[in-house]
Specification:
With 180 residues, the chain is mainly beta. The protein is built from one helix and 22 strands.
């Protein structure tokens, strides 16, 4: 990398850190958000130290929702994370590109338009040291245990135990990544 690019990168990093530090509820040391697509409800988003969020990410909080992304987590490009309650992503997780994580969904009673119905909020949590594969969907009400692995394009609709490896639609446990 040439000297010009290094200088340009340092200026961008410094300016970005000042901007997000003022916008978000908390923006940790050595954290980086690369050209997000949309960040909504900034004051209720807490980004821990050394968190890295890739290009075109979309982070949202609605109502009384709060989003906490803990120390050292990496979130790749085009991820969409929505919190209408308290959504916590644990330390040192790796979240691949195009992942969707939410703790809410629209009601769907037949007598009213879906957009006019209140959100259903269900506690959702991602444990420590989890790996979520490309294109996976973590649906509302799901808790991922520590050290679990979610396969590419999996749709997780139920809680995942610690150290489990899940894959499929809907996701099912296919093994464990621990030494027994």
């Amino acid at each position: 990398m040439g000297i010009f690019n290094r200088i340009r990168w340092r200026i961008y990093y410094f300016a970005s850190h000042i901007y997000w530090g003022l916008q978000l509820g908390y923006y940790g040391r050595e954290a980086m958000i690369h050209y997000p697509d949309r960040i909504f409800g900034c004051k209720k988003i807490y980004i821990g130290d050394k968190v890295n969020i890739g290009h075109h990410a979309r982070l949202e909080t609605h109502g009384g929702g709060k989003l906490l992304i803990d120390f050292g987590t990496t979130i790749e490009e085009r991820c969409h994370i929505i919190a209408a309650g308290d959504l916590h992503i644990g330390k040192e997780c790796v979240i691949s590109a195009d992942v969707y994580i939410s703790d809410c969904s629209h009601g769907y009673a037949h007598d009213e338009l879906i957009l006019h119905q209140p959100l259903k909020v269900m506690p959702t949590e991602v444990g420590y040291h989890c790996f979520i594969g490309i294109g996976a969907k973590i649906m509302p009400g799901v808790s991922l245990g520590d050290y679990c692995v979610v396969g590419a394009n999996a749709v997780v609709t139920h809680d995942v135990p610690e150290c489990a490896v899940v894959a499929g639609v809907p996701a099912k446990v296919i093994g464990y990544n621990r030494d027994d």
